[in-house]
Amino acid sequence: MLDLFIIGGGPIGLACALEAKKAGLTYLIAEKGTLVNSLYNYPAGMTFFSTSEKLEIGGVPFVSNSIKPTRSESLEYYRRVATSNELNIHLFETVLNNQPKNGGYEITTSKAVYEAKNIIIATGFYDVPVKMNIPGEDLPKVRHYYKDPSFYTMQKVLVVGASNSSVDAALETFRKGAEVTMVVRKNDISDRVKYWVRPDIINRIKEGTIKVYYQSNLSAVREFEVDIQTPEGLITIPNDFVLALTGYQPNFDFLKTMGIVLSADEKLLPAYDPQTMETSRKGIYLAGVVCGGMDTHLWFIENSRVHAEQIISNIIQNTEKV
User: Fold this and answer.
1) Contact 222, 209 (CB under 8 A)
2) Which of 10, 34, 47, 271 is 20 to 30 A from 212, alpha carbon to alpha carbon?
3) pTM of the model
C-alpha cells in the first residue's frame, strides 16, 4: 500500500511529490494527460504574470531569460524537475473513482487499481471551460481554448471575454492579420489584465483596429455569422471563428465522485481544513487552485506551493500518532 496517491501532474502535484520523497513516503502521481498538462495547453506564446522565482517548486531554481518566464521555459523547467528527481509519475492515466479499503483507499484508474493510505487531489481547473449555453456553441468554429494566432490569419475572429487570455488572443490574432471583434460583458477591459498588456489593447480599441462591444453578450452562433446583444439592441456580424475564452472551472463532477463536499452556493467551494488541507474524508487532501471552487483567481502556483508542505507535514504527524 502506498503512503500517498497524488491525482494531477501539474506544478502543485509535482511539489507534493517532491515533499513526499523528501519525507521518505511512498507515492505515485497519476496524470490524465501529459506532464503539467494545463501549462502545455496554454497559448504557445504566453508569458506568465508571475516571476520565475515564484513558480519554483521543491527549492529547485528556475532560471529564465527574463524575469517573467514563457510557457516553453516553464514546460522545460517542470520537466527537468520531474526527471532529475526521478519522480514516480504515470502519465495519460485517468483516475475513475475510489473507495475505503484496509484503513486507506482503493483507487481505480483507466489502467490499474492501487491502494494508498492518503490521497491528494491537485487537479487544477483548466480542463472544464465555462460554457455560454447559447445556440451554436457546439459548432466546430467555436473554440474554448486558444493556441496559436497564425491559424486565424485573414479570418473574422470574435473574442468573448476581457481577461488575460481574451486580450492576448485578440492582440495576437490581430497582429497575424485577423479582423478582430471583442464582446465584453462589462463596461471595460478587466483590471486583472497584465499591466504591460492592458495599455496595448486599450490603444488598439481606441484607434479602431480592434472593435469591441461593451456591456454586451454573444447570443447565437451560426456557420458564417454571429448575433450579439448590445445596449443598442441585437446586431448580426459576419464571422469565421469564435474564441469563447470565458474562463474555466474545476471538474466538480470528479470532486463529487471522490466524495468531496461542495458549498451550496454558486462558488461551489470544496470543504477542507485550511491548516492541513484535509477534506471531510480522512486522508484525502486538496492542493492548488482546485481549493477555490469557482473562484479560480484565488489560488495560483506562487501562493499554493505551500500546500505541499502543509499536507506532507500533516500526513507525517498522523503517521506518528498511529
Assistant:
1) no
2) 47
3) 0.90
